[in-house]
């Protein structure tokens, strides 16, 4: 079932020049992930198949953020395989973003190594510490938005921690942890733009979203339902969310639609843009894993329980370090609700 509508509301790092620095560093330090999961098929057939699948998922699913397994600290086959890796390969392999400011990004000011930092990265280190006893025992793989699910299904990563929204369509393909963050879709546009939010002011405007993102599927469904102006151009899609900000800066699009949490971080990178209007959906981020990895799902859920209880070095501390500057104090807008689990063994 579509996320219910809601109302919510929400300086600088730089603009185009800073983007050039970041993009250069990304080019130097990028972690390669093959795109073998992409298939070349007739475009219309793919679109029709995706639409049918999405519609069926919406019919059969309600409250996807509750479709997860109860917590457990037990080791199962999946975790044992991770622990049995030898030598330098004894690491947790995690798909992440490397260009989402304050979530998962390479800080150009952190020295020659430009290590990955951010709210999602803190969570990855905590998971690695619990499973392997070493928070640094992680092999990060940079995953484009549209490759998150294929990377999990193909076994290229053990999990994806990448501002990934739990939704009805995705839970058919991957297993999710309990939510670790609450957000909602929001519009980002230049401060000088006449766009006021997710409304009729988007008529005739070019809107950028990431391929395979919840934002794109929401726009497509809303346009079909008449809730988004038919003249809004939603064809501008990119592999990674940061590419939308660059397109906006270059004047190639008029607005970006993405999770409000990410939009706030992008606004912090460029003081010439701002959030327009309120969030218009309620969504939750989760850690994504293979459908068959029940023991890993349960373990991550246990880690999340402990992470939220740890006020000194857990969820709250990470939020304060990375997100409070753009999202304000911790509130019900960002903190996920108490987790609910499937009643299965």
TrEMBL record:
Positions of region (Disordered): 57-77
CDD domains: PBP2_GluB
One of the record's GO cellular component terms: extracellular region
PANTHER family listed in its UniProt record: ABC TRANSPORTER GLUTAMINE-BINDING PROTEIN GLNH (PTHR30085:SF6), AMINO ACID ABC TRANSPORTER PERMEASE (PTHR30085)
Keyword set includes Transmembrane helix: yes
Keyword Cell cycle assigned: no
Name this polypeptide is given: Glutamate ABC transporter substrate-binding protein
GO biological-process terms attached to the record: amino acid transport
TM annotation in the entry: 12-35
Similarity section: Belongs to the bacterial solute-binding protein 3 family.
Stretches assigned to the Solute-binding protein family 3/N-terminal domain: 91-326
Stored InterPro entries: Bact_solute-bind_prot3, SBP_3_CS, Solute-binding_3/MltF_N
């Amino acid at each position: 079932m579509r996320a219910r509508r809601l109302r919510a509301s929400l300086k600088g790092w730089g603009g185009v020049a800073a983007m050039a620095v970041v993009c250069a560093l990304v080019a130097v330090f990028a972690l390669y992930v093959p795109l073998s999961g992409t298939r070349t098929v007739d475009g219309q057939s793919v679109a029709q198949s995706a639409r049918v699948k999405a519609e069926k998922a919406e019919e059969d699913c309600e409250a996807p953020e509750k479709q997860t397994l109860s917590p457990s600290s037990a080791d199962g086959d999946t975790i044992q395989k991770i622990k049995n890796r030898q030598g330098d390969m004894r690491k947790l392999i995690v798909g992440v973003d490397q260009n989402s400011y304050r979530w998962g990004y390479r800080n150009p000011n952190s020295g020659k190594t430009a290590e990955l930092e951010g709210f999602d990265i803190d969570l990855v280190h905590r998971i690695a510490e619990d499973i392997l006893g070493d928070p640094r025992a992680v092999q990060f793989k940079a995953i484009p938005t549209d490759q998150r699910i294929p990377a999990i299904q193909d076994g290229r990563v053990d999990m994806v921690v990448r501002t990934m929204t739990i939704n009805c369509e995705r839970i058919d393909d991957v297993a999710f942890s309990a939510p670790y963050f609450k957000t909602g879709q929001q519009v980002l546009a230049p401060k000088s733009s006449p766009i006021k939010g997710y409304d009729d002011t988007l008529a005739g405007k070019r809107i950028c979203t990431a391929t395979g993102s919840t934002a794109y599927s929401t726009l497509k469904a809303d346009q079909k339902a008449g809730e988004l102006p038919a003249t809004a151009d939603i064809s501008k899609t990119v592999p990674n969310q940061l590419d939308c900000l660059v397109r906006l800066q270059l004047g190639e699009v008029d607005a970006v639609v993405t999770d409000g949490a990410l939009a706030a971080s992008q606004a912090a990178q460029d003081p010439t843009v701002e959030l327009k209007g309120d969030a218009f959906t309620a969504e939750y981020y989760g850690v994504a894993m293979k459908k068959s990895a029940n023991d890993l799902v349960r373990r991550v859920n246990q880690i999340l329980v402990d992470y939220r209880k740890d006020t000194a070095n857990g969820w709250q501390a990470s939020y304060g370090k990375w997100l409070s500057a753009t999202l304000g104090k911790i509130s019900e807008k960002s903190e996920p609700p108490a987790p609910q689990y499937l009643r299965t063994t």
